[in-house]
């Protein structure tokens, strides 16, 4: 029986972060399934067009990837997305998979990163493991000194509520200095700035809550434009530093994706 593991991501046009994040997740999952052939697909048409035009790199969309698996005689397929929420991109992936479901003896589709209540707690802990100096539950000197602000993407989809739920979960777990905002959803930057002012730290550390540290992280978060998150917090009187790492680099996050592939079978 021919078996495949198809890892589906939104995608990024930045090669360095693509290798460190999407590539790292793919390899981590593939190592757990040595009997399955690893395949890649992206859901962002814009990203795929940029890669094709600029770098002459073709990445399959989900429909193309599924067609190839059928044509090549695969019978057992695991599809695991690296999407953070069960939003528009996850829905798009599911719609593109649906016509092919009956073409395989077995197919299962894993969930996005933030799906179950347990996922939220595990994600909080996985992120704090990467910045132990900011963990107020273990490092008491961090209290009131530094705020960690996570930049999520945000969406018009109802799944946008996941970001507020994650912010709440951080604080419920004792990480009182962690704040979650979004670029294109809620909570928006202005609200997060006000919440951080209420906490009144001396410093602010910005980090993307995105699988990759791509355009949003480099430009919207850490860029030199007047309305970047970095400059907005600096203009509000804070000393600011940026961590340009996508959460796809974190082994704790990779482990959650692996758990979702196991759970879907």
Folded structure, characterized:
The protein is an alpha/beta fold. The chain folds into 2 domains: 3-114 and 250-263, 3-Layer(aba) Sandwich (Rossmann fold), CATH 3.40.50.1400; 117-247, 3-Layer(aba) Sandwich (Rossmann fold). 42% of the residues lie in helices and 17% in strands. It is built from 11 helices and 8 strands. The strands form 2 sheets. Strands 2-1-3-4 form a 4-stranded parallel beta sheet, sandwiched between helices. Helix 2 (22-32) crosses helix 11 (251-263).
Distance between the termini: 16 Å
Low-confidence stretches: none
% residues in beta strands: 15-25%
The gross shape turns out to be globular
Helical residue percent band: 40-55%
CATH topology (fold) name of the largest domain: Rossmann fold
Instruction: Report the structural category.
Output: alpha/beta
SSE string, helices as H and strands as E:
EHHEHHEHEHEHEHEHHEH
**Name of the CATH architecture of the largest domain:** 3-Layer(aba) Sandwich
Compute the number of structural domains. 2
CATH class of the largest domain: Alpha Beta
Tell me the number of helical segments per DSSP (H or I, 4 or more residues long). Answer: 11
Radius of gyration: 19 Å
